[in-house]
Amino acid sequence: MIVRNWMSTKVITVNINDSVQEAISLLMQHNSSILPVEHDGKVVGLITHRDLRKLRDTKGSKPDMRNIPEAVLQQKVDTIMCRSIIAVPPEYTVEEASQLLLERRIPGCPVLDHNGEIVGIITKKDCLKAFTEASGVTSMGILFGFLVEDREDCINDVLKVLHRHDARLMAIMSLYANAPEGHKFLYIRCFHIDNRSIQELRDELANTAKLILVIDRSKGIQEMYD
């Protein structure tokens, strides 16, 4: 998954000579979590909700102008913006962008081309949407979860069983987090399975690998195994 396919290309920016009040108005009007600051066509800073909350005496999750002194509202945005610009190129993967946003604890960042010009914004929400689509959950289907040994051919036997039942694969994910040493979790979402053969398929999979879950919301199936 590439950033340019998931970023927002409708970019709202503020000029370095604009006021703090104008920046807050833009964030509120467009329900944005990040506002790039431009000067001569280049991004020179960023404003986020965190920057604006520092100006207030009370806590709040959304930017507004209450409890911010009028003198501060009339200041230029360069007095409050973050000058350390965190950005990614459009060729970055969504995974890389997600890792950066999590590590820096920021809601999003600009996407800059090779000329340093802003071409989009990628946010945590965009990344979450990409991962949700990649998981196949939006197309429903049935999800099988396994605990398998961490070896190259660990998935082959499972796939052979699914192929025998003409299952169409939608997504395959593996996860090492919280798995016992030498093992990993394997999740496979598929569809086009004959309802009459689900029990037979479940039994075959359980005999092939350690089956830990079977979920199909459309059929009310949610089974967890120890």
From TrEMBL:
Superkingdom of the organism of origin: Bacteria
Ligase is among the record's keywords = no
The UniProt keywords, alphabetically, are: CBS domain
Q: What are the CBS domain coordinates in residue numbering?
A: 7-65, 81-139
Name of this chain's protein: Putative transcriptional regulator, contains C-terminal CBS domains
Q: Which organism is it from?
A: Desulfomonile tiedjei (strain ATCC 49306 / DSM 6799 / DCB-1)
